């Protein structure tokens, strides 16, 4: 039962059950809680429907809905989840309930207040995203070894920029690094060739959900 501060509300776009399509947990049955709102407008965004709308949910009701599914894995995503201050309460409540929780965040908002049990998947915005200036670089100091940093790459200049950031900031010593090609803009095979050529300590990820079900995360 949730009481006190954890009895707040969040604006929710959708709660659904699917396979995790990205990160080191790819392929695992996961409940996704998608929050409304985002201060960024990346050119390749495929969830712009989560910019507005949705419905208000009490955190207790969110946990009840998550509990309908037989999995320990929960991903809180958006939009940008941290744009709603009660997201921190939700993340803690999910951890307290025994779930293995991950947070997908743009990296533009402060992550230092996120519960340490949560796996943070921090998306560093590249030049071609159109939102490079929104990167909050101090977030890198709030990462643990369990966390992951993701670069979504549109083209070769994006790749070269990400390679430079990776090396200059020694990111691979902080946590796992993910390189992901924008579908239809950068060939995964070409990106794989670059990673091998440069011997980068990164994981190439291709969105599993798109391979299985097209543009939708779920079935």
Automatic annotation (TrEMBL):
It catalyses: 6-carboxy-5,6,7,8-tetrahydropterin + H(+) = 7-carboxy-7-carbaguanine + NH4(+). Substrate binds at residues 19-21, 34, 77. InterPro entries: 7-CO-7-deazaguanine_synth-like, Aldolase_TIM, rSAM, rSAM_QueE_gams, rSAM_sf. Keywords: 4Fe-4S, Iron, Iron-sulfur, Lyase, Magnesium, Metal-binding, Queuosine biosynthesis, S-adenosyl-L-methionine. GO terms for biological process: tRNA queuosine(34) biosynthetic process. Its EC number is 4.3.99.3. Residues 25-215 form the Radical SAM core domain. CDD domains: Radical_SAM. It holds the Pfam family Radical_SAM. Binds 1 [4Fe-4S] cluster. The cluster is coordinated with 3 cysteines and an exchangeable S-adenosyl-L-methionine. Binds 1 S-adenosyl-L-methionine per subunit. One of its GO terms (molecular function) is carbon-nitrogen lyase activity. [4Fe-4S] cluster binds at residues 38, 42, 45. Its cofactor is Mg(2+); [4Fe-4S] cluster; S-adenosyl-L-methionine. S-adenosyl-L-methionine binds at residues 44-46, 79. PROSITE patterns: RADICAL_SAM. Pathway: Purine metabolism; 7-cyano-7-deazaguanine biosynthesis. Mg(2+) binds at residue 47. Belongs to the radical SAM superfamily. 7-carboxy-7-deazaguanine synthase family. Catalyzes the complex heterocyclic radical-mediated conversion of 6-carboxy-5,6,7,8-tetrahydropterin (CPH4) to 7-carboxy-7-deazaguanine (CDG), a step common to the biosynthetic pathways of all 7-deazapurine-containing compounds. Homodimer. This is 7-carboxy-7-deazaguanine synthase. It comes from Candidatus Nitrotoga fabula.
